[in-house]
Amino acid sequence: MTQRKTPKLYQKHILIIGGSSGLGYAVAELSLESSAKVTISSSSPKRIETAVSKLKEAFPDAEVNGHACDLSGEDVESHIVELFEKVGKVDHVVFTAGDALASMKISEIDLKKIQTAGQIRFFAPLLVAKHAAKYLSPGPESSIILTTGTVGDHPIPDWSVIAGYAAGLHGMTRNLAVDLKPIRVNCVSPGAVETELWDNMQKTAKETMMNQIAAKVPTGRIGRPEDGK
């Protein structure tokens, strides 16, 4: 009889920054299905409370915790430090946090808008990697996983600012893998996935974009967070 293997994530501690909704929440579910310990984080204490409650209801015997961490302000680094102090040792860090998509015409761009657009999508993951290195179990069994968008490879009108950060995250990831070795650092570009990030778009514009993307992809529809399961 073949001996049943222990799940790879069994009792591993996974911190998911952006884990209260969308892709991050799906990662939390998948991790708990593999018997991992999960801590989720987002900017909203209420969303954290709701997400943790739902996860505990679905996985009554699992160890699930949540801590709010606001990545949007100038004191972002101190908030990241506080988060890791609360969470403690981890085996994997997954960064899926995002904010409203900062599409804008070239004529509307200024330095402040450029900086704001990169706060959560570029500056925050770099600072997370800096401090995660102190809390991750040493060795190649530990990892940091970042997420970015396909706009870095496939241009979209009025998305020059976002595209710059999306492409830049690939370079950041490759260099972090060298700087943090032997900890593994990877970047995932899942393509268009229907999550709450799109909710700020005008309804007609959102539907038009979703239909255009769906017509181009092999599945014939936009991705869903649960597709990774």
From TrEMBL:
Belongs to the short-chain dehydrogenases/reductases (SDR) family. InterPro entries: NAD(P)-bd_dom_sf, SDR_DHRS6-like, SDR_fam, SDR_PhqE-like. It holds the Pfam family SDR. One of its GO terms (molecular function) is oxidoreductase activity. Keywords: NADP, Oxidoreductase. PANTHER family: DIHYDROANTICAPSIN 7-DEHYDROGENASE (PTHR43477). This is NAD(P)-binding Rossmann-fold containing protein. It comes from the Eukaryota.
